[in-house]
Amino acid sequence: MDTLTTTNVQTNTDTFPINGTDYVEFYVGNAKQAALFYQHCFGFELVAYKGPETGSREVVSYVLQQGKIRFVITSAFSPEHEILKHVDKHGDGIKVLALWVDNAEEAHSKALERGATCAMEPVKLEDEHGYIKMAAIKTYGETIHALIERSNYNGVFMPGYVAKKSTAKIKPLGFKYVDHCVGNVELGEMNKWVKFYEDVLGFKLLITFDDEDISTEYSALMSKVVSNGNGYIKFPINEPAQGKKKSQIEEFLDFYRGPGVQHVAIATDDIVSTVEGLRDNGVEFLYVPETYYEDILERVGGIKEDLEALKRNNILIDRDEEGYLLQIFTKPLQDRPTVFFEIIQRNGARSFGKGNFKALFESIEREQELRGNL
Questions:
Q1: Which CATH number characterizes residue 109's domain?
Q2: Together in a domain, 99 and 146
Q3: Quick one: which of 224, 216, 141, 227 has its CA closest to 186?
Q4: Are residues 347 and 367 located together in one domain of the fold?
Q5: Which residues are CB-contacts of 276 (< 8 A; sequence separation ≥ 6)?
Q6: Of the residues 60, 71, 139, 198, which has the fewest C-beta atoms closer than 10 A?
């Protein structure tokens, strides 16, 4: 199957308007330590907090921000709480991909009419700063989409939280916004979830990759990318394909114990500076051999960045008809080989680095082999 690319859909054809990503929420075993990790290693500032000191007796959350990105790091105190049951099964992982909408009740109702399953009925949360309305629907695995309406709220995050700042000096690393979030699902489930996003949220199919596009000598996968009307939300959905050995998608499904968010791609305008800062802070990245760069400019054409700096930092390069992109992938963020980050800089390109797939997947396989999971 050839790669299919469609142009961005205009907002006036958007049947389910979404303004952007509101936040990404991680369920973790120890929120205080995880929040410190993202502050010190990734340069996120602590901006809000909810816990026993604010009247929350069961759950604690730290809200971290950099650019337009908000991460909510959440844990619970009781092992019987659903949050720690989620962590026990999946490890630290992403539970909520929150979408910013104009009318949460209307969006929730429309989603249910189109076949979504309710994860949370609409609620109104109020304090002295105004109110927020929110609801939620289920998607693949135990992941949910919260629908957040915040036009009538002027507080730091939402009711129940208080403003809180990092106690250490944090150096932001140039992260701007969430570029895309990738979900891994079981064999045969990809088209089902693509159809869910098309039917329920009015997304359009942006790109299709088959196992000839994304394969190595040993493993393969298939992927389809869906995007909302204004193009701010992009969700690639991956499923494994037949190969000689276990693919990275199968490894994720095994260790995550089911479908879930595999990685979040974060945009920067200066990937070299961002990656060098991350390396200085101890973040580890996948490695590609120096041979990758031997004929890279013949393949992708001219670029503005210094090739030696990209090579030194192991940053990948690809080009489409719109321009070029630079990207790099961290190693898993915890001991389970599950969730990781992609750092991406777009210089016009709207694609996802198809030309880098082989090098990237061979790099992932080297890590799988070290773990004994290939």
A1: 3.10.180.10
A2: yes
A3: 141
A4: yes
A5: 313
A6: 198
